[in-house]
User: Which sequence fits this backbone?
């Protein structure tokens, strides 16, 4: 074998070893991101869903998520890794990939991070922890985001990782829908329309009323979410949402025991006669259909404003939870539609029943008490969770625990009022 042949053989061996080394590194060393964040950081909240989307796009990507607020160990780790990268880290979010580090988050940084991730999926990149501690160090094993899916009949494939937000949305909307204020107004209006013996009037007026109130309520929810998106996840916002939840919750639970005594988030008694008189005027036979629709439209707007204090608690808490979870605008749009559909289910059921049977029943006071109790208990548990353990709502099990605790608390209070309190009554 001559010298030139030996040189060619040696070069081929080197190339093959390099390719083998690269493939082994790619197989054994996943692309690892160390992401340091802090509760109340608006930029952190925006970067988190971005990294989750990258994980879906690049299966080999692993994100090690570190919270620095109240965790000195994570804060010190961030500083040590930063020192190894030649940077003095003074803020969050801080993202380490391979040999690069970013502090803050913007569209430009997002583009740079994705370019780096793409490069690291094709080329071996160092694990930031290995860079800090050395190749021989024992490092933590980052957990890759798991995509657990199930196939449901008529629905298709459902990603279970998104279930917590969907579950909490569905349950909150369901409880919010059974609102004594809106149910009282709807049943009262439909009860008056029955006397006209006209299904046409019932359907047109009922749909107009539901459409206007739902639109106004939806705009209120969209406004809340926009405000939360603007102010971010600052601690004082969490405290404010929790205070609102506690206030609505305690007042509603109080109404179960002492209905409408003291502070009460219900339609004031002085307003009800005016609403009743206006509805009676709406159902006069002499009124033309266009005039009836127009009057219903204006009346529905007024009623929405009157009942807003009775219904505002749940949207505030719900939008606060979604903001804390860092959901994207597109995800919120889907959740918003789900919320409104479920919120309207009970009213649509009442409306449909009356339209078909031309019979109506009034909401009894005891029913209103129980609905207020369930709603109040749920708001209290959501308030405590949102303030102290918001991460509990990030799992399906956690969300079910929160709602289960609210239902259990409601059952205990019902038994207390029915079984225990009568024992202390003075005859």
Assistant:
């Amino acid at each position: 074998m001559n010298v030139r042949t030996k040189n060619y053989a040696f070069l081929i061996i080197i190339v093959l070893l390099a390719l083998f080394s690269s493939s082994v590194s790619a197989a054994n060393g996943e692309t690892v991101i160390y992401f340091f964040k802090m509760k109340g950081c608006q930029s952190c909240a925006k970067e988190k869903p971005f990294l989750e989307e990258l994980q879906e796009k690049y299966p080999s990507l692993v994100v090690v998520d570190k919270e620095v607020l109240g965790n000195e160990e994570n804060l010190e780790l961030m500083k040590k890794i930063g020192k190894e990268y030649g940077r003095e880290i003074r803020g969050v979010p801080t993202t380490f990939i391979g040999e690069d580090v970013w502090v803050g988050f913007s569209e430009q940084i997002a583009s740079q991070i994705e370019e780096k991730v793409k490069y690291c999926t094709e080329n071996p990149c160092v694990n930031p922890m290995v860079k800090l501690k050395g190749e021989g160090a024992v490092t933590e094993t980052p957990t890759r985001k798991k995509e657990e899916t199930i196939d449901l009949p008529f629905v298709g494939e459902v990603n279970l990782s998104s279930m917590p937000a969907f579950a909490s949305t569905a349950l909150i909307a369901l409880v919010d829908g059974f609102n004594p204020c809106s149910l009282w107004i709807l049943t009262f209006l439909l009860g008056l329309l029955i006397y006209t013996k006209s299904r046409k009037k019932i359907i047109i007026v009922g749909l107009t009323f539901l459409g206007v109130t739902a639109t106004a309520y939806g705009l209120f929810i969209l406004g809340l979410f926009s405000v939360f998106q603007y102010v971010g996840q600052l601690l004082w916002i969490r405290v404010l949402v929790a205070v609102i939840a506690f206030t609505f919750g305690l007042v509603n639970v109080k109404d179960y025991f002492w209905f409408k005594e003291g502070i009460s988030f219900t339609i004031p008694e002085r307003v009800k006669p005016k609403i009743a008189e206006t509805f009676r005027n709406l159902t006069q036979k002499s009124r033309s259909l266009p005039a009836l629709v127009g009057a219903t439209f204006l009346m529905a707007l007024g009623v929405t404003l009157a009942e807003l204090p009775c219904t505002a608690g749940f949207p505030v808490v719900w939008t606060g939870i979604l903001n804390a979870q860092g959901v994207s605008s597109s995800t919120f749009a889907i959740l918003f539609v789900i919320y409104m559909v479920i919120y309207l289910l009970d009213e649509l059921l009442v409306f449909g029943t009356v339209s078909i049977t031309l019979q109506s029943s009034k909401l009894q006071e005891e029913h209103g008490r129980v609905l207020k109790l369930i709603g109040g208990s749920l708001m209290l548990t959501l308030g405590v969770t949102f303030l102290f353990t918001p991460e509990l709502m990030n799992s399906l099990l956690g969300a079910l625990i929160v709602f289960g605790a609210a239902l259990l608390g409601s059952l205990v209070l019902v038994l207390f009022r029915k079984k225990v309190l009568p024992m202390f009554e003075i005859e």
